[in-house]
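Structure tokens please, single chain.
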Amino acid sequence: MTAPIVERVDDDLWSAIGDPTRRRMLDLLLLDGVGTATSLGQQLPVSRQAVAKHLAVLDRVGLVRATPAGREKKYRVDEERLGRAVAQLASVGSAWDARLQRIKRIAETIHRQQNQTD
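Here you go.
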């Protein structure tokens, strides 16, 4: 029953979001609406080159979209893709909540049975 949920999870997407620098970049882009590697690099404790590499990862998984702007690219968050990512996370969270509830019920049953035999 849980297999379909697992199949819907995009490992590349979660790998990209798993990095704290990339999450901060997404936050900045959501706040400012648009950013370049240079403008983001000024707000982060990493080099402009590192920012460009992180942006390439986010672009590859579809979380940001780049538009040429002179010698740089302007990046915006793809809100539809981010919305799908949030929905995936909620689905996975719900599945784990259900699993943990089942484990809790099993543990409580075992505990009750042990108390009855004592």
